[in-house]
Amino acid sequence: MSNSNFTRRGVLKSGAVAGAGVALPTIFTASSAAAYTNEPMGSSVTLGFNVPQSGPYADEGADELRAYQLAVEHLNGEGDGGMMNTFSSKALQGNGILGKKVEYVTGDTQTKSDAARASAKSMIEKDGAVMITGGSSSGVAIAVQGLCQEAGVIFMAGLTHSNDTTGKDKKANGFRHFFNAYMSGAALAPVLAARYGSDRKAYHLTADYTWGWTQEESIVASTEALGWETVNTVKTPLAATDFSSYITPVLQTDADVLVLNHYGGNMVNSLTNAVQFGLREKQVNGRNFEIVVPLFSRLMARGAGENIKGILGSTNWHWSLTDEGSQAFVKSFGTKYGFPPSQAAHTVYCQTLLYADACERAGTFNPCGVVEALEGFEFDGLGNGKTTYRADDHQCFKDVLVVRGKENPTSEFDLLEVVEVTPVEQVTYDPNHPMFAGGNLGACNEGA
Amino acid sequence: MLGLNKKDTRFLLIVIALTLLTPIILQPFPEGSSLAQFNAGYPDLMQRFAIFGIFAIGFNILFGLTGYLSFGHAAFLGVGSYTVVWMYKLLDYNVIWGLPLAIITSGLFALLIGFVSLRRSGIYFSILTLAFAQMSYNLAYSVLTPITNGETGLQVYTDDVQILMGANEPQSPHFFGIVMRENFWVADIGAWEFTFNNGYYFSAVIAILAFYLSLRIFRSPFGLMLRAIKTNQTRLNYTGLNARPYTLAAFVISGMYAGLAGGLLAAMDPLAGAERMQWTASGEVVLMTILGGLGTMMGPVLGAGFIKYFENIFSKINEQVLRQWFGFLPDGLEGAVVWVAEYFVGSGWHLTSGLLFMLVVIFLPGGLVEGGQKLAGLFKRGKSDEDIDDPEHQPKQSPHVAE
Amino acid sequence: MGLLEVKGVGKRFGGLQALGNVNLSVQENSVHAIIGPNGAGKSTLLNCFVGKLIPDEGSVLFNGQSVLGRTPHEINQMGISRVFQTPEIFGDLDVMENMMIPCFAKRDGAFRMHAFEGVENEKELVEKAEQMLIDVNMIDKRHMNAASMSRGDKRRLEMAMCLVQDPKLLLLDEPTAGMARADTNNTIDLLKEINEKRDITMAIIEHDMHVVFSLAERITVLAQGTPLVEDTPENIKGHPKVQEAYLGEAH
Amino acid sequence: MDAILLQILNGLDKGSAYALIALGLTLIFGTLGVVNFAHGALFMIGAFCAVSLQRLLSLSFETVDPTRTDFLGNPLKVKTPYIESWFGPETGAAIIDWSVPLAILFSIPIMLLVGFIMERGLIKHFYKRPHADQILVTFGLAIVLQELVKHWFGANPIQTGAPEAFKGSFDFGVLLGFDPNLIIYPYWRMVYFGFAAVIVAAVFAFLQFTTFGMVVRAGMADRETVGLLGINIDKRFTIMFGLAAAVAGLAGVMYAPINSPNYHMGMDFLVLSFVVVVVGGMGSLPGAVLAGFMLGILESFASMNWIKSMIPGIDQIIIYLVAIAILLTRPRGLMGRKGVMED
To answer: Which domain holds residue C99?
Structure first.
């Protein structure tokens, strides 16, 4: 069916609305004027920040939103510029993106793939967003990434840790700055082996959904490669609140390490429960019983209080890093909001800058141009050291932080300490690695 | 006309007109104006209005007519969606295969659940349906991932078989080449912009058919029996009628409506998430029905529109927008107003909807339809009594009694 | 052989013998009253006829067929209609809708999926229902909400709903309870007329002796779950046992 | 054997929470005839009473410590709770440490007040409305309450620890002749179970042995008659509602150390507690308690590995399966009465 578009929307509208500075929605229509979905016609460009505002991850969503607002300020030349000053690419001028003022719309993903897609669609269809970003869970990221691929806009993933996001569900229009489960495993395993010995017996509790499985698979593979034995892997329902009935069976095995493949409220509860049941004081074969939380989130860790002390995990970024970029970011975020940013805030700030920079370098908002500019892009100064956006799967490759719950925190934010920065080489994998196989990036879609 | 009496025909025609003109009606504010935020005439939301309207219409056949409160209808919604996406994966993107099958599978599923659940009544029935739906959701999210793709939601991959896929076929859901997500016309009239979307009109036509069918059911002997079940099952039994097959039929029909709605969701957007089956989704359709007006023809549709509007429009109003609106106020006052308003919009949209549920239930026990009638009554006071008669021409609500 | 043959029916609730060895025969086209003091088991017996209770022993034959083990709606379809002590009507529906339901039940049986044709297009049944409303003098109330009517009207409506089914046997559970004397007399006339014009057999449970003696052709007196005697009104009036067990106390 | 013993303990613990919530829910339903979807929210408010008290007690003044710096490199502002400066650091710290048990006292007046306001302001007007309306209005209220809590406290779980004295666990195994460290149980969970038992016993005693309770029980059995007796049932209803709110609130207070409270914990428990109430039989207090413990224990058993390996996913659905099985075999739940909520 042909699109009968009788109006010359661009011509008609540019005069009427350009002055008002509003981007015009043109999604899904073959418009004679727009070369690609939601091509910004006026003096501004609209980005869509799609974050959880309700549901269990709402606090992370709120922190992401703060970082987005900060990023928009910096892009528009307000504030102190944050990491724009330390970013290795100097394409950004502080005059918006490609001279257009950056505006944004926000939406609530509710941490449900349906709601997230509805919200993203409304940004694309109604508000004319040319890029969608955000999210705090993998299900949502994958769902929205798929949508953006179909609609022909760029998706810059927020916090998503599942291997699938850049594995079996990777999409040409989607990019992930955050690290993934495989990297967590690859970074953690050597540290675990070095500290706890290479003959440990691990017991896994795993949230019973896709992300949990990929993390369990990754950790099992990387620890077993170093000589650990996996005693058991037990799936726990997502809706579980009390994990006592999953923790007590651990007591009856000869396992001496408990790996909690949980996130958010699940992590807080399972860790608290594990500590309640005295697992940290437990001795097995003359050695201390240990608990590992492969994916740490400082925001969430607060809910577990002092239970996280001494527990090893990995994280994408932490505000206590002392490199130039991190410090600049913490300074401008902390000055504005009064507390340090979370890893979720950091990753979405980076994603926004990276997108803007790619547009500048490509000289267009056209998704295909952006994809080309981002693929294989090497950069530095965004808090993670030298980083590459790999062209094969649109995954960022950078150093991974192994962290530990701090024994003597000096403030309510000072919960984690970095014990090791695992170099990027150690966490790099082949794009066709079995854990990531099965997907197909496809071709970039510019829509319209 | 169409087997309806004059009044119903007029009613149906009004509904058809409203449905077809939705893209215009929901876009009352010019683009670029600060009120454009409240426009709802974009394809995704309009599709949702139509689809959740179907869901609520079907649910009303069960709950509104028989009084059996099911807390598990989201399960049928989910089954419908999964069926359609599976048809995409196995055959091709033409929705013609999936939609009828969605109705059939959800109907069979409803038959199974209904057969068991309808052995009990009252809250025991509600809990049985809730239990079945929660089991479906929990399993779909975890153990059944090979079928449902769990957390991510079922979607089409490039390596799926798609045996009927033609060379030039669109790579997204379509109906014999009419691609759902495409607009056939985007009209710019002055500062206004109206989007006429294939998917919306596809859903709208189905919604009208669904509405028409439900109108016929309401006016049929079968509908009469269902209402009789709600008011007095004892008398029904002693009048020689077997309530069970009637309730079961109503349950299955409303399950099929839910399956159709679920299928359409997947027809508009080829992804089926497990959250569709969660109890909150079942609760949502209950809210829609009661909010709009239980047992009325138009109420559930209004309720569905109301809730989806809040979810999609209010959640998007953020601080930036508020500051824009209230920027004309003096600084201190602006801050205060924005601070208060932030409770209710953006992430506070749940709060607003919770308050509205309460207000509607407290002051308009008959739902929005009752509110509309009261309003109409005010305007029509001068006219004869007969004109005030509502288009629903419902029997008067009996006094509400707790037990 | 009567239309309703009750043989040796017994029913106990826990330790209580509610009914014991009840024998009773309701002849075709007759009006048969069952009387007895409170707690004599009249309602229990009635419930055994309509499928609400299943007796522990004995048999209940209607038209030569056993009703035991059948559900209320099956028994109704066999031709037994029941009027309740407190009228059971469809309160949320209007009078005409109340009348249409038994019409459909009669024509279509216990279940039929007729979900597409409008109720108002069933001309034949509408006429039948309207005629019945005319007969019971309620045609002017046909659009009234049933719940909003007076108790007497509700009872008349319920009776009309039963009659429109042309039952072979009509069971009435204290049809004049709580009525004023004038209404009671009207009801008696109505019932007489029904019995005579429509050839409907009736079994009545009643407290009011005036009603019983003006209507019944045969009377069964029940006391403590067993029939004391079954006879014509004239004989019952003078029966010493009855005087002693029932009338003596009451009057 | 030891595994089963442990799961029974776990089940009793979970069951305690279910039973306490279900008890209040069925109390409200039995006496007032109201289906209260906001009951989970009351549980949540109770837990946040504990959080609030902890915060109140740790209200601090700031002193600047120039030797240390905060995350921005500015001199660190050290917070000292007022209470520590008033009572001395050790007593002060001990008071803060005991904030959860103290919150029991703190929460009772608050929960009673919340209950009274809810009943007088809202629920009262819904006694004669259909159950569907009650569900909708209380559901709306639950959303409002939880959103307000979210606005104030955020969405993340907030750690609210038990007093130091209750940390650690008790070794049951040694007591029963097993190896040490095989069957251990955290002290606080045992406290929770004991606490639940006391509350349940207190509610039953109250209903059994006081005149007030007798009237209420009579009201549960036959509301109309009690109304006819001319007893001022309204006032008693208000008190009952307050009581039910207090029970839910106390359950929440004590639950706070077991799982860190978050704003949606009420909704998490709502569906389960309704299942519990219905399985127990609507309006039956012993039924609710029995069903609570039974479902708690069954849920724990279902999460055992060998059962899970036999029937994958069984722990996800066990409660619902049991609910279905019970409702099909016992039409009105374990101890329900005829005619309640069947229309």
So the answer is: 91-166
